[in-house]
Amino acid sequence: MVLPAGIVVSAGWWAQAVLRAGAARRIYLGWREGELTKYKRAYAEWSAQVNEHERREQLRVSASALWHPVGLSRRVRRVDVFGGTADGWASLLGTLGMSLLAEDARLLVLDFTEQKVAGDLAALARISDHAVSVVDFPDAGVGLLEGLSPQHVGEVIAEALTGLRTGDGRAVQVTALDAELVTLVAGVLTAPVTFGRLAAGLRVLRSIYDTEYETSLSATEILRLNRLLDAVGSSESVREELRFLAGVLGLLSDRDAELGGNPLVWPRSGLSVVATWGASARSKDLLDRIVFHRVLHAIRAGEDTASGAVLAVAGVDHLGLTAVELLARHASRAGVRLILMLEHLRGEFAQLLGGGDSAAIVMRLGNAAEASAAADFVGRGHHFVLSQLTEQIGRSFTGGSSDTVGDSVTSTTSDSFSGGSGSVSDSLSRASTWSRTTSWSDSDSVSQSRTYARAYEYTVEPITFQALPTTAFVLVETGDQGRRVLAGDCNPGIALLDRVATKPRQPARSRT
Fold first, then answer.
1. Cα–Cα distance between 156 and 142 in angstroms, integer?
2. β-pairing, 421-458 with 380-418?
3. First-last CA distance in the chain
4. Region entry Disordered: which residue ranges (predicted)?
5. What's the pLDDT score for residue 326?
């Protein structure tokens, strides 16, 4: 059988096409298999890198510190603590005090709270083998007036009594008179010069000293004091001040501390705690002022206060802003770092906030006005908030129709004459037209808009200060990198936890 030539050619072409298609498919499958292998290899490498990254990140997070110590700027020489409870102050003194002692600071703590807020610090210092001295006035063998000249005794007592004369327009003159009278009496007395002996000497000047029942003064001292009667005078102002001085110093005359003893000096190393208490509010207040101004005199006179001296005063609210500012000024001049702890943030003490060389620590403030004052001091920050949301929805519908009707009539008459013949033709045509047009449209519209406004709000809300935990605080300081606001906790037990750093975190610049 002979096939046509066309059929043979077609079959050959088809066979070649099939072979080419098979070869192309094999090439494609080989390329596809290679690319798939490359993809699987790349995916495996990527998965391994992701897993390794996650593993390292988990290790980093698990090993990173959760707590960092708070480091203050070098320019900070004074720390003002506002608010808090007795437990909070004890924790703060324990944490901060041990940090200072670890730097070989010589720390003196004046505790006027009657709540032993420095007791935990003293216990921790003993455990850490630091030298610790605790003096509880009045049951202490330390003489507040020991080591002072008669002039300095007069100045210390007069300055201490100044705070009791608030609102007196003659405060300067009266203070000078107090200092003069006490100096005269102290100059006559032999050691030890105590509050009871000073009060007895003032009674001699008032001519009411009973030598039969009182034995605190010797005959020689009484004779010398009587010689001062003419120098003192007998004016009404002098008699009033003698009565006042004898009365207030008599409040401390029954104290064991007045029997004398070692002078009140700065610790040569380690920690020294001076705490006061009193059976009456008047005697306690006077004792606090005497101790405060005795330490102030030591700072002003430079009595071994250099080289790492730190003074912490707990409970200075009742001493007045003038005395506190005087202490801060002389401590700054003498190079003594100062920690002031105030129970409240109100009245004139709000002026202490934001001092040039100070940092503020704000602890729990239950009073709403005090919490608001703290929030105002911390400041406000701005952020953008959604202030207005507008949504408009509209729909319009338009419809219409029109009808057109028309009629036309055409009449034609034609005459034709040719030779003797003619013709007349008439034609009439009529046409009617009608049309209707309808139109319709429908549209919907939706528009939405959002308006954002810049809002200024408290960085720390007042209610936050009212609800702070016992040992929590907010620190505000201005350092080399600007103003810094951070939250912290002074619980000493944090140092025993895991993941606690030994160095402060690098402070970030605050936006407030």
1. 16
2. antiparallel
3. 104
4. 397-428
5. 92
Q: Could you write out the DSSP letters of every residue in 253-308?
A: TT-GGGG--EE----SSSEEEEEE--SSHHHHHHHHHHHHHHHHHHHHHTSS--SS
Query: Domain boundaries in the chain?
Result: 78-140+267-365, 150-255
The amino acid at residue 181 is L
At position 441, the amino acid (one-letter code) is S
Give me Rg for the CA atoms of the chain.
Answer: 49
Q: What is the pLDDT of residue 510?
A: 47
Query: DSSP letters of 218-236?
Result: -HHHHHHHHHTHHHH---H
The model's pTM: 0.76
**What pLDDT score was predicted for residue 195?**
87
- Alpha carbon distance 492, 93 (integer Å): 9
Q: What is the pLDDT of residue 467?
A: 93
Residues of the chain with pLDDT under 70: 1-12, 139-142, 166-171, 254-263, 304-306, 415, 417-422, 424, 507-512
d(CA 36, CA 47): 16
Instruction: Count CB atoms within 10 A of the CB of residue 412.
Output: 9
